Amino acid sequence: MGNDIFHKNIPLLEKLINHKRGLSCKLSDPVKQQLYEIYQKTEDLWCRNLEKIDTEIKYILIGEAPPWTFCSNVSYFYEQPTGPLISTVRKAFKDEMPKNRAETYDILARNGFLLVDSLPYSMPYTSRQRNSVSYRELVKACSGWWINKLKKSGKTFSKDLKIALGYYWNGLQLINALGGETEIKNNRLKTLKSAELNIGSVRFQFDTNNLISNKETGYMPSSEKIKGVYRI
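The chain above was modelled as a monomer; its predicted structure follows.
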């Protein structure tokens, strides 16, 4: 399903890129090839990390996508333990610096933590794009991809599973794409209806209270907000 989703939704990605330009440009073959190579490598790294988790999954962080890069080296959560996102997450579980890369991932695995991205395309999205109907369409179209990854992971999910939404606009669009409803009125964000995530026979609800980034944090994930959402 992963490869099918990647190729199937390229037209939606192209629509998003061009939504403010009134153009019908296609992604070049080299760009699509690079996107696909990043996708394949990060999927492999995600699956390898999944094998390290031998306890029930208690914490999920829903991200957007791995960072875009022109080179062969991928800057990904499960590849570069010195990046800003993994450092933020690690501090929420353990304050001191791990001795090496393996220890960083072991700490998260022992705590039943798992990151899953909501998009298979490592594009440098802008705030304007993220706050568009085209982006919401892309997020919704790809939602079955990452939810299916969780369902087929072979892991047990805690009945008290905590879900954090990593990035502000992506999180809002996820809520709306999965049946929720949000409203921004007088610069205040409000949940009108919670979203629902179904993993097997278990259903989990989440809303704007699950966001770990906002205007106060510069729209970047915060360790304190992670602790609050995860209650740790």
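The radius of gyration is 17 Å.
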